[in-house]
Amino acid sequence: MSLEQPIYSTRAHVFQIDPNTKKNWVPTSKHAVTVSYFYDSVRNVYRIISLDGSKAIINSTISPNMTFTKTSQKFGQWADSRANTVYGLGFSSENHLRKFAEKFAEFKEAARIAKEKSQEKMELASTPSQESAVGDMQSPLTPESINGTDEERTTPDITHNALPFSHSSAINKHWEAELAALKGNNAKLTAALLESTANVKQWKQQLAAYQEEAERLHKRVTELECMSSQANLIKTHKTELNQTIEELESALKAKEEEIEGLKEEVDNARQLQAQRDALALKLQETEARSRDLEGQLADLEQRLESSQLGQEAFRKNLRTLLEILDGKIFELTELRDSLAKLVEGS
């Protein structure tokens, strides 16, 4: 089994062309997934593989006649004749698309060089077998080449006609025995040829069976290689998921701390609200007392004003009384002086 290793990975949204319309794109992943280039060092093959969970949504072998086309700043596509589809990738940035296209061109050139080297090796390996086959075709093995033609077997040398009859009869017997032996050999060769033909048919059947078995094993090897590459992808994906889980756990912990802080702020806000409500109640009570005091103050001001008016009237009356008293005192003083004069005069 060949061993494939990822040599470049990125993340993108994966699409395939609609097989019915050949125009619309059909998304094969709900979110961005990992898309990787794999290299098989044994078969010298480059592949693009992507998994959505445990499902392979891209399994494309790069060939020299493939072309990766940028259709927008963040989208590219290529056609895979073996898979009979067109793949599309949507990237998060133009830089990711440019990097993927550069890798595609690099591995496409590497696939072309590997194919040329493989063809050269096949040509070198096939040259000796072709030469031997030509040699075999130039000298085929036939019964005539072994036994000779009928003319060679039945036509004696012309010089035998001059021999005596007895000697000619012995030669004829010799040739008849030789002919019988040749016929026997010819029959054996014919039987061997028929047996060989039957064996060739059997070998062809066995070869076909071996070819079918080899094709089945090749498919099984391809499936196992795909499973191996998928296992590597799953392992990579699992590592990424573990990293994502750790990041999410860290983010969750930060959110929990933030929630605790918000709870404390809410408790503080509730306490402040209770204090505000208490202060509002006190303010209402103070405003009520203030209104009462304002009423009392207004009453006192009214009473003070009335008292001031009464005091003013009292002062006026007091002044009048003082003026009258002063007049009376003056009159008494005059009366005293008059009485003193009278006393002195008497």
Jot down its keywords.
346 residues; alpha+beta; eight-stranded antiparallel beta sheet; 4 helices; 8 strands; 16% strand; rod-shaped
Structural notes for this entry:
- The protein is of the alpha+beta class and 346 residues long.
- It is built from four helices and eight strands, in the order ββββββββαααα.
Query: pLDDT below 50 for ≥5 consecutive residues: which ranges?
Result: 129-165
Structural class by SSE content: alpha+beta
Largest sheet: 8 strands, antiparallel
Query: Which H/E pattern describes the elements?
Result: EEEEEEEEHHHH
- Give Rg in angstroms: 63 Å
The percent range for strand residues is: 15-25%
Mean pLDDT: 79
First-last Cα distance: 174 Å
Count of individual helical segments = 4
Percent helix range? 55-70%
Q: Would you summarize the structure shown here?
A:
Belongs to the Homer family. By secondary structure, the protein is an alpha+beta fold.
List the helices and strands and how they pair.
Layout: E1 4-17, E2 25-27, E3 33-40, E4 45-52, E5 55-61, E6 69-70, E7 75-80, E8 85-90, H1 94-138, H2 143-147, H3 150-154, H4 165-345
Antiparallel strand pairs: 1-2, 1-3, 1-8, 3-4, 4-5, 6-7, 7-8
Keywords: Coiled coil, Cytoplasm, Synapse
GO molecular function, one term: G protein-coupled glutamate receptor binding
Family: Belongs to the Homer family.
